[in-house]
Amino acid sequence: MYNDPNWFFTDDPVQMWGRQLVYHEVRDGDDQVITPDNRRYTSLRRAFALYRVGLGDRGPGDEQLDVMRRTLSWLHCRRYEQPVIEANAKCPASARHEKVDDRRVICDVFGGSRPLFEHYLLHLDMLGLTTLIDRGDYGLTREGQAALIMLELTRPRSGVLTSVRWLIYEIKQGKWISVDPNRWANGIIAIEKNAG
Questions:
Q1: 120 vs 72: CA distance, rounded Å
Q2: Does residue 45 have a pLDDT over 80?
Q3: Please, which domain of life does this record's source organism belong to (predicted)?
Q4: pTM as predicted
């Protein structure tokens, strides 16, 4: 999909990726996320994997999405994990992870291969999730930030409701999952309850 001429990201970078998609409630079955190419998926994470970054039915699996999440997270705030908290909650010090330098990312995530790491950064740039800021230094695009929020919130350990049924409920309420922009700039996902 990454070359779909009909796809333009128009949402806010502090909102979870996926608001532009269509959500369909099914009475006696799995609710569905419908992408612009009219394919139906039973999870937002899978729609992202197969429609946005995949190659048809050969989209990235959970392990590859975790590599993407960790890499995007590192580019955003130089950490592998982004604490997820309620908007008004105080972030516990134990939830903040140490900053990691690029040599450690290359070792931990890319098996010590700098060429693989640099190639992956080019891949993320080609997808439009990152952009080159300075020679060899990348930052997240608006869509890259929204995708990182979605990848963090939809991973199994997040504890945040992101099932398609819950997302349909949020849309009917005129809401979508958003994060506090000030805390997001510091790498903390503080979920705003009444985002519109």
A1: 11
A2: yes
A3: Bacteria
A4: 0.87
